[in-house]
Amino acid sequence: MSDLLAQIEEIEGAALGQVQASADLDALRDLEVATLGRKGSLTSVLRGLKDLSPDDRRAAGQRSNDLKRKLQEAIDRRRAALEEAEVQASLEKDRLDPTQPGPPRAYGHPHPILAMQRELAQLFESMGFTVMDGPEVETEYYNFEALNIPSWHPARDMQDTFWLKGGGVLRTHTSGMQIRAMQERGAPLRVVALGRVFRNEDQDASHEHTFHQIEGLVVDEGISVAHLKGVLDAMLQGVFGEPVTSRLRPSYFPFVEPGLELDFECRICKGKGCPTCKGTGWVEMCGCGMVHPNVLKAGGIDSERYTGFAFGLGIDRLTMMRYAVPDIRLFMSGDLRFLEQFHTG
Ligand code: PHE
Question: Which of the four CATH numbers 3.40.630.10, 3.30.930.10, 3.40.50.970, 3.40.30.10 does domain 112-342 have?
Answer without folding.
Answer: 3.30.930.10
